[in-house]
Amino acid sequence: MSKLITRRSVMAAGAVGAVGTLTTLPISMVRLAFGGTRDDFTFTYISDAHIQQIKGASFVRNWDQGLKRAVAEANLMTPESDFVMFGGDLAQLGKREELDHGGEILSRLKGKLYCVMGEHDYYFDLGEYWSKLYGPHYYSFDHKGVHFVVLNSILTSDEWTFRRWPSAEQRMLEMAGLDNPNGSPFMVGDKQRAWLKQDLAKVSTDTPLVVFSHSPLQKIYKGWNFWTDDAEDVQALLAPYKSANVVYGHVHQIQYNQIGNIAFNSVMSTAWPWPYPQSYAQADSHIPVLTVPMNRADPFFERDATGWQLIDVGSGRVAARYQLWDNEPRTVAFDQKLGRPVDLAYQEPTRRKVPQTHY
Amino acid sequence: MAKRMMIHAAVLALAGLVGTVLAEAGGDAFPLGLPPVPVPADNPQTPEKVSLGSKLFHDKRFSGDGTIACANCHADDKAFTDGPLKTSQGIGKQAGTRNAPTVVNAAYFTSMFWDGRAASLEDQSQHPFLNPIEMGLPSHEPILKIVREDPAYAQAFKKVFGKSGKDITMEEVKKAIASFERIVVSGDSPFDKWYFGHDANALSEPAKRGFEVFLGQGRCVSCHVIEQNQAIFTDNRFHNIGVGINRIQPEVPKLASEFLKAKQAGASVDKTVLTDPKTSELGRFAVTARFDEVGAFKTSTLRNVAVTGPYMHDGSLKTLKDVVKHYNQGGKSEGDPSINEYLSGGIRPLNLTEQQMDDLVVFMEALTSPAYFGANTKASAQQ
Questions:
Q1: How far is A90 from chain B (nearest CA, A)?
Q2: What CATH number does the domain containing B30 carry?
């Protein structure tokens, strides 16, 4: 443990390492070697807060506490990270009160905040209030030689969105449900893909690309909408880019994948893990009812299996440093030799699951 | 010679320690409710080593002004604490930042100090000598001079370690002190008699109800662990339960950043956390620099808790009822502006009734071992 103490005390200075080196330091500045003239840098990623109103000014304490803790810890970073992404699902049922309460907590963050739309933010008023707080539903920006794109990837068919449900509340509840036969798969949609094509036309294929999305931009598991219906079409637009990276929320767990040139990394939720054991859904926890529970250790510590992350960008590739409460930190970094993301701390060669290369 | 270990009352002069039972080589009773004491392979227990350790533990000469021994803050007649002091007093009556934990059953901890910065009893023993707030020696040399030259010590070190003169180092001193501390273990409380000894009458009705709260709505047992055939009442982990840090929340980012800068420049954690009360609140973070451990402190044992107040790392909670109220409010006491953002996920409001809280206190009072009944009488509500 003493080795870790020495290494971890490097907060003010930086420790140089290359993407793919064995390190799980949560706060040392893992400066990744970046070929060429660009900077390597780090940004903060907080996601899936699910702020939930019980009644009036009373909100679910558990989810509030998770977001507050992520914000407080992110603010401890010295030097400050370059900007903060919020990965979607700030609210649970898309209510103004929830967006405002969550927004108030997020406003305590130092540095510039960019937000991604989540389905829990969207399906009540189709993102109208969200836009007032956070701007366009999809957009792009450039930072230190990297082109960043934010997509709204939780859209679904017009029929389901506009004509299926008698009220906005009902629509939101249906989309918020899990294993819901009334649900509908996520997509980016024609309009946005056309916008993306035109946005990327100005970006050379040598430029590193990082795409933020709430849904995975892959097809992983339809029952929980770990799914983007037009994933292949979106991937086709990203495929020409030498270093394309997708960072997504929604799944509340660590996932990573490689499809062609595109590396995929998920982020954790600050609210609850997924899947979660039956005990979470007992008496009064406010968590949506899950029909496919999984066994894991008793979650006496309500922050267990939740967390936030620091994303390092270097050599055009992404390393996700997961800050996991009540747990050891984990890092999933791009291995240049293997050409895909690798879990640096956890994967033993004999137990390694080779990433899926086609979905 | 029989391997049975006996404490020489004359050597140890510990009234009330006579009841402490030590393990025979043949595996006879260690105290009811306790597991075997972990003993490192390189520091086996012998009666002579224990006696030597006790002598060192009680020796005031190992301090800057000759007034403070380990036993000043860990006093034999106060269950090895210094109640009613909230935080301990070192040489020159200086006030420190932290409450002296009891040595009783400390042998079961896997790290020492409130923030676990020492890995063993041996390691822990060397630091207070050098801390300017505690015993304030400039180095360990004055200790080594005494143990090498004082005839009684010289003879003891020769007998125990086969070493003399310059061969006596702090390694031997630390081992002897740790060895003594390993016999300061105590079980056989009313709770032990009832739970492990199956004596249905050993516990009062309120205490039995309190035990139900401890296991259930109180959520205590998850960190203050009870196992099937022993109970050390600690998980040996670190948790932020909202003591102290609640009152300095806006200052935490600055404190954390400055502390780490200082630590990187070579400042000693031991010195810094005991001299600055605000930095002390960083807790385990000061040792590991993990965000997850801001304001986290080691779970104390609850054995003898009724006689080892006041409570928490800063001694800020005076009575056990204060402690229970703090937990009941989800990690917050009277006067705290709010719960803190780094609070452990295990802490939440408990919604206990007044009766449940009182019963929980009565249960905790039943965790006192016979050797310590009546110790530290100001803080205890003893049977």
A1: 18
A2: 1.10.760.10
